[in-house]
Design brief:
The chain contains 9 helices and 19 strands. By secondary structure, the protein is of the alpha+beta class.
Length: about 425
């Protein structure tokens, strides 16, 4: 346990800012642990891949363009995970591994392993002395426990995608120890935990090291505050600081995803999937769309407001117009999509059509000049082609996420932003 001067100072009387920073830092881990507990309550078993039906996932801000398979993986110095990946051509795929803080530690696909894009892969703990079969591609990871998301683009032929999805196979070689799932505080996104978050702090931190640099001070403060809250008087004060200062800091950071760049009402986060010392963005991304991948795989734009700066609402109709020279397809090697989720829980917007996103596979109609206009409204606007319309029910404030998978051109260069949403 940390015994630095910083921790001792915090233990005596943590400042409001120390409490706020430590709380937001810790929340990143608690968000992952909340999902892990939900997964194992559902029936997950270590090192067993669960193949989801298209659209079945329920975590915040899912990507419904793909067929997902999911797992929690445990390896050690004497065991490794064998991953068999079929040959997949003509559609996007990846097998993504993340640690317990939501950091991406590996991807398996044709970009990361161009000379071995399919076949057998051995996911091994770094420096583990294990003997692998010939022809197996070794992948070293820095952690023993990981969340896995295998994605196969649905594309135009969902049956083919699902068949490929189910040919991704996991098998564990050896007998790794399966750790207990940490029983930390559970909460709803609309009602974040108060001081009780620090009651879970030591368990959260002890069960998964933070591999990122420069986190020692925050870890020390978090552990020290966990001790401080055992004093009833301090507990009450810190709970009040969380519910005022920390919640305020957190919600002020949300609209720009921390240090993101805003243009045309869209926010481009400063990073995703790999965060280095940017613990604030990591927490915000885990809150708004857990399991984000790296910018090399996908770049996300968050739409919270229209061209006038007003929050997006199902009470209004909006258009998103792309001129012929800047159609979204030119910025994605594989595919683009835009999905709507409610502003609080980040779940897809219910509607009778069960249409939750628009993408390059939608039945889009283009203008006579080659332009593309997308429509967002509770009822289909009279002049809107049906395939260009995303239902956004009345009574719901919502956000949009625009994804470009395997970004290219100005999106990869981070100089592009989608056009503004115009209220009509």
């Amino acid at each position: 346990m940390a015994t630095s001067a910083a921790a001792q100072s915090t233990a005596l009387d943590p400042s409001d800012q120390q409490v706020s920073d430590a709380y937001i830092y810790l929340l990143s881990r608690l968000l992952v642990l909340r999902q892990q507990q939900l997964d194992f309550e559902e029936g997950f078993q270590w090192n067993q891949l669960v193949h989801r039906e298209p659209g079945q996932v329920v975590w915040p801000n899912p990507n419904l363009d793909v067929a997902y398979s999911e797992a929690w993986v445990a390896i050690d110095d004497e065991s490794w995970l064998d991953v068999s990946v079929p040959e997949i051509t003509g559609r996007y795929y990846t097998v993504q591994f993340l640690n317990g803080w939501g950091e991406t530690v590996a991807n398996i696909n044709e970009r990361t392993y161009p000379g071995h894009s399919h076949g057998n892969f051995a996911v091994c703990l770094k420096d583990a002395q294990v003997k692998l079969p010939p022809g197996t591609q070794r992948i070293d990871v820095p952690v023993r426990h990981m969340r896995v998301l295998s994605r196969v683009e649905l594309g135009a032929t969902w049956d083919e995608a699902v068949a490929l999805q189910r040919r991704v196979i996991f098998s564990i070689v050896g007998k790794p120890i399966h750790p207990p799932v940490p029983q930390t505080v559970m909460f709803d996104s609309e009602n974040l935990p108060g001081v009780e978050a620090f009651e879970s702090a030591d368990l959260a931190l002890d069960s998964e090291a933070d591999i990122n640099p420069g986190m020692e001070k925050l870890q020390a403060d978090t552990r020290a505050i966990a001790q401080v809250v055992k004093d009833p008087a301090q507990r009450q004060r810190i709970d009040q600081v969380i519910r005022t200062r920390a919640f305020d800091d957190f919600h002020k950071a949300l609209p720009n995803v921390g240090h993101g760049t805003r243009k045309n009402g869209w926010v481009l986060p400063s990073t995703s999937g790999i965060y280095m010392d940017d613990w604030l963005v990591r927490t915000l991304v885990n809150y708004g769309g857990i399991w984000a991948n790296t910018p090399q795989e996908v770049i996300y734009y968050k739409g919270f407001v229209d061209s006038a700066g007003a929050a997006l609402s199902g009470e209004h109709a909006y258009t998103l117009h792309f001129p012929k020279e800047h159609l979204p397809a030119q910025y994605a090697t594989w595919f683009w999509s835009v999905i709507g989720v409610d502003a609080v829980h980040k779940q897809v917007l219910p509607n009778a059509l069960k249409r939750f996103l628009l993408n390059n596979q939608s039945n889009l109609e283009y203008g006579a000049d080659g332009s593309l206009t997308l429509h967002f409204a509770d009822q289909k606007p009279q002049d809107a082609p049906d395939g260009n319309w995303l239902p956004t029910p009345k009574g719901t404030d919502y956000n949009l996420t625009f994804r470009f998978y395997r970004p290219q051109g100005a999106v990869a260069e981070r100089s592009y932003f989608p056009p503004a949403l115009v209220k009509v």
